[in-house]
Amino acid sequence: MGYADTIRGLLAEQPFLLAPMAGVTDAAYRIMCRRRGARLAYSEMVSVAGLAYASNKTWRLVLPEDEEPQICVQLFGSKPDQFAGAVEAVAERVGSRLTLIDINMACPARKVITKGEGCALMETPELAEEIVRACVSRASVPVTVKMRTAFRQGERTAPELARRLEAAGAAAVAVHGRSAKQLYTGQADWTVIDDVARAVDIPVIGSGDVFSAADASRMLAETAAEGVFIARGTYGNPWVFDDALKLAREGDAPAERSFVERLDALREHLGLTHRYLPLMSRARTYATWYLKGMPHAASWRGSVVRCSTYEEFMALVDEIEADVAACQ
Ligand SMILES: Cc1cc2nc3c(=O)[nH]c(=O)nc-3n(C[C@H](O)[C@H](O)[C@H](O)COP(=O)(O)O)c2cc1C
């Protein structure tokens, strides 16, 4: 069985994946989603430049924690030999829990594209092919690519590039339905995802504007993609993976989560961050996502940014819970 079929098999079991998000999808975040139905989860993107000699702090972005059965590692860069070295280093450090290596050709950040990395690779298809070949030659796991519709707004280069990268050995392609120039603005164009999926024989994962279980299930139904990335749709809603699967398979509408349930999830998330990172500054961002729609949410957001220790965050959640109870 080829690597494309391996990925096809994984997507057939659970087509909804936790998308890579720099600064967000750390071990604590991934574990929250895994406990609620996510099977495949990605590391935050990591630079291939010098990964082989990187510090433990950089490796923390890549290595799965004990509770994690697998990890997909996303690499970015522009030099084929650095990719080849990084693939070997990742394979050695991660071991049997490495499901796949993904090459980032989607990141639109200025400091990345000005170095010819990320989405800029969509403008240099020969180099993109060379990078895929370099990774495939060293990897003993599938090598995949994440791209956008095109680098420039109004163009649609993804189907042709996907065909070339398939020929170079990519086992799957993910497509975010926006151009690099669009960043995260405007609406994602799912027709490009569909075009790519019809242009290649390898499985395609769609991405863009999947904000709920209903969106995720709809992308699967409306396009030829076999998998769907959930990115911002996981904010404050780690249940979205189980919900999307139940909706797509059985037509069951997602349950409403009570404020208490959401506050309990926030406590769990804080506990994981405290245990695994420990980088409590990240909690300031995700805590506000769990509080959305709660009574006095705006004023609680003000309190959240004043917290810095695990104990302060946990005490604040107790306070919010008491307030919610008083309001009901
Ligand atoms: C905060 C943030 C960080 C992201 N980091 C990455 C990344 O490291 N690698 C990547 O391929 N995509 C990254 N993305 C893009 C997402 O994976 C996804 O393709 C994009 O958000 C579109 O999906 P959405 O509209 O459903 O959020 C990031 C998105 C966000 C919001």
Topology (elements, then pairings):
Layout: H1 3-13, E1 16-18, H2 27-34, E2 46-47, H3 56-59, E3 71-76, H4 80-94, E4 98-105, H5 110-113, H6 125-138, E5 143-148, H7 158-167, E6 172-176, H8 190-199, E7 204-207, H9 213-222, E8 227-230, H10 240-250, H11 259-276, H12 281-291, H13 297-304, H14 310-327
Parallel strand pairs: 1-8, 2-3, 3-4, 4-5, 5-6, 6-7, 7-8
Flavin mononucleotide binds next to loops.
Number of helices: 14
Could you say how many structural domains there are in total? Answer: 2
CATH topology of the largest domain: TIM Barrel
CATH superfamily of the largest domain: Aldolase class I
Strand arrangement in the largest pleated sheet:
1-8-7-6-5-4-3-2
Average per-residue pLDDT, rounded, comes to 96
Shape: globular
CATH architectural type of the largest domain: Alpha-Beta Barrel
Largest sheet: 8 strands, parallel
How would you explain this protein's 3D organization?
It is a single chain. This protein folds into 2 domains: 3-250, Alpha-Beta Barrel (TIM Barrel); 259-327. Helices cover 46% and strands 12% of the residues. The chain is built from 14 helices and 8 strands. Helix 8 (190-199) links the parallel strand 6 (172-176) and strand 7 (204-207). Helix 7 (158-167) runs parallel beside helix 8. It is globular and about 60 Å long. Flavin mononucleotide is lined by residues 19-24, 44-45, 74, 104, 106-107, 146, 176, 188, 207-210, 229, 231-233.
